[in-house]
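Dock NAP; give full complex structure.
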Amino acid sequence: MPNVLVLGGSGYLGLALSKSLVASGNYAVWGSARTPEKSKLLAQNEISPVEDDITNAGILETIIVKNDINIVVDTTSAYEQAAQILQGVTQAAKTRRDALAKEKAVGPKLGFVYCSGMWIHGSQSVRESDLTPAGTSLSKGKPATAVAWRPAHEQAILAARDVLDVAILRPATIYGRGSWVWSTWWGGILKAKQSGNNTDVIQIPADVQARNPTIHVDDIAAGFHAAIDRIDGRLGAWPVFDLVTETIGVQDITEAVKGALGVTAPVEYTGTQGNPFFEALSLVSKADASRARTVLGWEPRRTEFLLNIAIYVRAWEAAQ
Ligand SMILES: NC(=O)c1ccc[n+]([C@@H]2O[C@H](COP(=O)([O-])OP(=O)(O)OC[C@H]3O[C@@H](n4cnc5c(N)ncnc54)[C@H](OP(=O)(O)O)[C@@H]3O)[C@@H](O)[C@H]2O)c1
């Protein structure tokens, strides 16, 4: 049974993935946690907690080697430490390779799965697949300001393939359960519900033409799970995958959320106001996940975001 270490294992995406791996019966799972409460949450879910500082390359290398980890998954939002995390993973891979070389032996590469994101495409002028290297002159979109650093990090991961088996997965905006990202657009509508306001204008910090790529958290976990199952050389020559189920305009989403919360107040789209996070949410996406389906054998099960939105809004409201 391979050992998988999920960095960010107590996070929104990381926990869903870790639970999926545990439930398969095919993996022993370790997860990083930064507080005793989150360690307890992991332990309760049959995930071995790691409380050490995983953003320190030396410490991460030791954790990987000591626990005989076969695959590391970075689902953290430790953006400023992304390079140190990659360094820790590659150091561990080299340490293992060099130790085997002394015995004149070889072994499988260490696996590394990185969670990137769809914002890396920016607003695409034409439809473009994940075969186009994001952030390069070949790409028709410019990465959102908030993730301007990410194309170089994706390239650094791909360049480490001499010692690592890698996969880069790019989730769309994730919904389901806590759905924290959506608070930016849905927060004002919930406030209107709570105050009983059905006349004052609700301001939504988005461009009216925004078209969001969306996906359920369980489908994201399934996409990562499929890549982990195939990390040992079965991902082809370009192991980079967009994961998206539907792209939906902000106005359709807003009206559906208003309906779910019973709010009839008018809405004004106030633009992105120079805020990099608002800007990223307001991109116009033309992405699809055809390669994830053909190469990973991935099929999303939670489709029809708008049709089922009352369920997701209720879960999000309960998590506030
Ligand atoms: N949510 C989305 O819609 C979405 C869409 C596309 C891409 N993504 C990407 O998915 C990844 C995970 O996002 P998420 O929504 O799951 O976020 P999240 O719930 O905030 O989880 C992030 C995880 O990273 C951990 N973390 C953050 N900084 C850290 C540090 N310095 N050292 C160690 N651990 C650290 C957090 O630990 P604590 O719990 O202790 O804070 C948490 O476990 C991110 O890379 C994000 O860019 C997310």
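Observed: The two ends are 38 Å apart (CA to CA).
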